[in-house]
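STRUCTURE:
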């Protein structure tokens, strides 16, 4: 999908995600209550909040890892509330996880190639890929997009923590995603690696929207168009990065005073 198509979708009010009254209970524990959100095609949204606010549970409901107890979820206008995770993936939804989930025994390029092949029509082929293989070409392009071109043949197990985070983003980019959920991609990164992460996210094609959960506000506010704050499983406050950063209540609850 080109930038012009993304602009047309946004101009007609099309939404990538629509959540209406989404709730998730674990027995007597209420993890999410009445979450309603509209996220436009191509929008970059940050979801912030303290530990236990319900952010990852929200991601799990969107991806189908945990089915919502109540409410409905639409993805580009289609109701996906009851679809299993693999069907949501086929429709262009991707995510990363707080804890890296990688094949440590593969090379970087092979990992990305398998991710690309896994969402293609040839995913069950056992033939060795040709030089002109489309999935291999996609993998090479993604390799460059996440700044891992110098590590194409490196074993995943030997990558630094920051490089493994970059590889996770690469896997999420496989197969032309329409929307990605990033779960704390900056966790454990050095200041230099965080700057690289910001550059990678800001350079993603404009038609790829995403939600980012992130405790590092310097990262979250630099890569998002809009911010949703969560507290005790509910939406607490929403606004632009500048509005959220300047909000006295947000500063008191989440920032421990003024954020500089």
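SEQUENCE:
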């Amino acid at each position: 999908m080109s930038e012009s198509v993304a602009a047309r979708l946004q101009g007609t009010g099309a939404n990538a995600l629509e959540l209406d009254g989404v709730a998730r209970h674990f027995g007597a524990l209420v993890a999410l209550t009445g979450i309603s959100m509209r996220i436009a095609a191509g929008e970059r949204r940050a979801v912030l909040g303290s530990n236990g606010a319900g952010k990852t549970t929200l991601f799990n409901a969107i991806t189908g890892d945990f089915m919502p107890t109540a409410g409905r979820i639409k993805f580009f206008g289609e109701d996906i509330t009851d679809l299993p995770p693999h069907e949501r993936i086929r429709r262009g939804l991707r995510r990363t996880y707080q804890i890296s989930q990688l094949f440590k025994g593969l090379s970087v390029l092979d990992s990305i190639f398998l991710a690309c092949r896994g969402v293609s029509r040839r995913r069950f082929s056992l033939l060795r890929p040709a030089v002109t293989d489309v999935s291999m070409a996609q993998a090479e392009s993604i390799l460059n997009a996440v700044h891992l071109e110098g590590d194409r043949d490196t074993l995943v197990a030997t990558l630094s923590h920051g490089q493994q985070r970059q590889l996770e983003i690469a896997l999420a980019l496989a197969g032309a995603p329409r929307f990605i959920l990033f779960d704390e991609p900056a966790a454990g990164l050095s200041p230099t690696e965080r700057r690289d992460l910001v550059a990678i996210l800001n350079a993603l094609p404009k038609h790829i929207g995403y939600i980012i959960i992130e405790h590092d506000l310097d990262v979250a506010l630099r890569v998002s168009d809009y911010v949703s704050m969560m507290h005790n499983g509910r939406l607490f406050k929403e606004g632009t990065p500048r509005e959220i950063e300047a909000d006295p209540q947000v500063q008191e609850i989440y920032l421990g005073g003024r954020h500089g």
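REMARK: Residues 1-92+177-260 form a domain with the Rossmann fold fold (CATH 3.40.50.300).
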